[in-house]
Specification:
Layout lengths: L1 E4 L2 H5 L4 E10 L4 E11 L4 E2 L5 E3 L3 E7 L5 E7 L5 E15 L2 E13 L5 E4 L1 H9 L5 H37 L1
Amino acid sequence: MKKRYANRHKIDKPNSDLIYLVKSINDNYFKGDICYYNFKNADIKITLSNGKVIIDNNYRLLEFYDYNSKVKLSTFYNENREIIEWYFDISNEIGKENGVPYEEDLYLDVVVKPNGEIMLLDEDELENALKTNDITKEEYEMAYSEANKLIDLLETKKEKLKSFTNNYLNYFER
């Protein structure tokens, strides 16, 4: 299981021109920590295997750490503040250590594209983690249960997702 900290981009590239902010939120829409990244001239570029760039100069990223959930949401924006995708990590645990949010990634992911298409990703990684005893059978089943509940919810809430994430992007950029 991979434990990923919210400040990993800043640690990996300490001299980059990365704006990294963490804000605790407790409002009617979200309770937890939201991390905002603006990769100004950050010397960080992440390209997916399909050729899609999700992090580059002037791109933004919001990460939502809900400590009462097993799902971490990441929203990727291009340099024009257009949503590239919503990426949901199914997690064994979402927590905070020394003031830094983290997640213990359970491999299985759900992606929502701007056109509304929903995809379940990395089932092979989850299966391999079970075979190599990196996760238990209970964690394996919980990952699928959480992913399926999320997909069912997203089927009826896709429009609200854009409004929800854009609201917090505007909050950080005011």
